Task: inverse folding
């Protein structure tokens, strides 16, 4: 029986993978399967070849939302359904895995050594893995359905065909909760810029998805007595950082765009300008829907730089969004404040945090920054050598951050890139969605399990350094 | 005797200052004195009022080199001499103070608690403070004189007047070793772009000044057996990081400018292009001389961004340059590498360094970044509100980094700013030269000596954070 035996072997191989390796392999398999399915005539028209299908599948599984095809035109209803399924798999799947991995941080155990042993599963959460995964699925289903219903009844009123309206409501609700930013219309949500219901529903779904399941379930279980002291440090910190970032982004966009006379936001009324700035500030971390056209002509340089900073920071860990994460930023900020105050320990909200957390935050931030810069350099060099349409460095950097942080904002670059440039974006989306740390730990585990352990045991002599 | 009594009291007050406070107060006093002296007709012509004198004095004492007057035309020979004296005071003075403060890091003692006690002076270096300060002065004198002699004989051959040539050689040698970037000609050193002698002499002086006295004296005392093992970690790390940065900067500038067809460096021959890129890469950290005109027209966007990164990083601690310092960058990079490799400790060159060093590096980097952004925001808002000549955000950010990191590169912005904008630059130069940490510790010490001590003793409960 060669076939069952092969299946058995594959299963065996799969079981031996660590969680990071499982994540990488599964991600790649889903992308390959999605590519093959999307390229069939059942799912798409003739414009969508294997390359377009690969880009779209990667963009969907990594919940980025960058497109080189028109989702509404080039995909059939079946294709759009497959796309929605891939968004759910990518968004909720990684949400579940990162929430699972967070369990190890809580216990303070060495992540790498313990992941490949089955017994650690019991240590996860109060009621084991099953309960948590069911909780994530239930939360997502309820929120997406509520969002879809509100969008159907109050939001997309201008769509007369009821079936079409229902699908649009469901698709955008799924896309928003998963911070995917895919839409059925080529102008994203610009058509609904002044529609308060659509703005609010999408904003709420983006924020709840971005906060992550641990935070929303912490909030929900404390809903009757919502006091600060009942919430965990993680929940309080994530909510506080998110609120500050939303505020800074909104006020910043209003200021930069109002000061620059000849850009789009300064030409519309104050209430709409405020709502668009709020939407842009939230969508930049890292949903990627737009209600205002993004380009060098419509947004000022300083506005684009602000958006780039927001995109790079991104959503919260264990959520559906990307970026270096709000807690990483908070750890860096706390370290900065402690240093400036001359304190010995890093203190956040009257809780001392380990120096190791700050080291990890430094690693994530610097590595992500370098990765994005290399991406932009590759794009720049390829477009110069090929004599393609010349983009400014700002546009290319913006696109690379958008891909790496899985935002999906586009200033008109993606479609006009060569295949090599699009490949850079594909790799960037995949690496950015998994996170450099997860990816590297998957690789380290495969390459040499023992060397690292040995390295950690080598004691190097300590020496001081003047900084 | 009221006057001697007042002098005595002032002396008494001065003695009670801690080293950081002494540095701030002395810096301010030298700037004020320099302003009053430069504004007199003995030193300058009618174009130099109190405001211009203040800006020039600050720029000189902080060894920045930003100018709103023409040093060669608007200052008399006496004025230029006073300027050189201020450069020496600012450059070598802070070099001595930071080298002094580094002594405390070596001993691992708590800086803040011990600075105000005279007895710590003996702990500094091998032979006490006096020897170190004499060493710094001697090194500077020898190097500046050698530089001046070479420039006089082989460099500035085109100047026929011998007195003029001697003064130009001495002034530029002083300016280069102190990383000040002041020149006597309005086009900096563009006139000598293809003069190899001038390029090499200025480069060597910049680099030696930027490495700092500890490194140069370490190299000098090991000159007979220059092996890596004899040098301290600090020396090896500073030299290695500096070399890597010089290489990245040179190669980066060659690439960015060669790829962008219509910018200056791509229009000149390869040998000159390489020399100009090397000079630009070194001068950006943080001397500020130019052999190529800097503007949005002559340099590409990506080239300007590369220069901004180099400027922000700057020279080495205990040197005459500014920026966040090479060791700060090295500490962040080492933390990144350790995190990515999954190591528990931060290891540089087989030496384990304390987590606290990384925390300090994070504090310096993030605080400097935020300070520069606030400066750029203030410049942008003031120029928008005043309806001044509109600069792009990139130009304003470039100018703010140039001031904060005491580089002195100018893309044509400084002279065209309002007094408010120039005030932002003055404050930026002063804060940037002292460093945010030194300035804040001076303030903390003045405000409340005891509170911090108490704060450090409060034990906060530890809590984990997901990053
Ligand atoms: K997205
Ligand atoms: K300078």
Result:
């Amino acid at each position: 029986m060669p076939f069952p035996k092969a299946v058995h072997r594959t299963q065996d191989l799969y079981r031996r993978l660590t969680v990071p390796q499982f994540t990488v392999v599964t991600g790649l398999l889903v992308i390959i399967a999605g590519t093959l399915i999307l390229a069939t005539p059942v799912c798409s028209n003739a414009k969508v070849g294997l390359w377009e299908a690969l880009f779209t599948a990667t963009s969907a599984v990594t919940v980025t939302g960058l497109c080189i095809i028109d989702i509404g035109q080039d995909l059939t209803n079946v294709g759009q359904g497959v796309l929605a399924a891939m968004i759910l798999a990518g968004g909720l799947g990684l949400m579940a895995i990162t929430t699972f991995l967070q369990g190890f941080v809580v216990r303070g155990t060495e992540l790498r050594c313990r992941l490949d042993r089955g017994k650690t599963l019991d240590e996860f959460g109060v009621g084991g893995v099953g309960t948590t995964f069911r909780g994530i699925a239930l939360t997502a289903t309820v929120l997406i359905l509520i969002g879809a219903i509100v969008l159907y009844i109050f939001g997309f009123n201008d769509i007369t065909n009821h079936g079409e309206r229902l699908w649009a409501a469901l698709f955008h609700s799924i896309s928003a909760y998963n911070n995917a930013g895919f839409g059925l219309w080529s102008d994203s949500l610009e058509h609904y810029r002044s529609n308060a219901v659509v703005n609010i529903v999408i904003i709420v779904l983006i924020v709840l998805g971005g906060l992550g399941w641990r935070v929303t379930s912490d909030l929900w279980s404390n809903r009757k007595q919502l006091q600060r002291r009942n919430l965990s440090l993680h929940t309080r910190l994530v909510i506080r950082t998110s609120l500050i970032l939303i505020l800074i982004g909104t006020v910043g966009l209003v200021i930069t765009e109002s000061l620059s006379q000849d850009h789009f936001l300064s030409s519309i009324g104050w209430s709409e300008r405020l709502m668009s700035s709020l939407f842009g500030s939230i969508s930049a971390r890292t949903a990627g829907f737009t209600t205002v056209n993004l380009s060098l002509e419509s947004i000022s340089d300083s506005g684009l730089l602000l958006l780039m900073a927001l995109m790079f920071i991104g959503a919260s860990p264990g959520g559906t969004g990307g970026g270096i994460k709000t807690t990483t930023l908070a750890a860096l900020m706390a370290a900065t404040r402690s240093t400036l105050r001359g304190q010995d320990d890093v203190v956040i909200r009257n809780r001392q945090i380990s120096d190791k957390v700050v080291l990890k935050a430094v690693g994530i931030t610097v590595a992500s920054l370098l990765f994005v810069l290399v991406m932009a350099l590759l794009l720049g060099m390829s477009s110069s050598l090929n004599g393609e349409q010349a983009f400014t460095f700002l546009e290319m950097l913006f696109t690379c951050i958008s891909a790496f942080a899985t935002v999906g904002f586009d200033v008109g670059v993606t479609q006009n890139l060569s295949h090599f440039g699009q490949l850079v974006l594909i790799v960037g989306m995949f690496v950015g969605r998994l996170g450099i740390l997860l990816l590297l730990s998957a690789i380290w585990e495969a390459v040499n399990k023992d060397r690292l352990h040995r390295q950690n045991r080598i004691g190097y002599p300590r020496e001081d350094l003047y900084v």
In short: Chain A touches chain B through 80 residues (CB under 8 Å). Residues 14-449 of chain A form one domain.
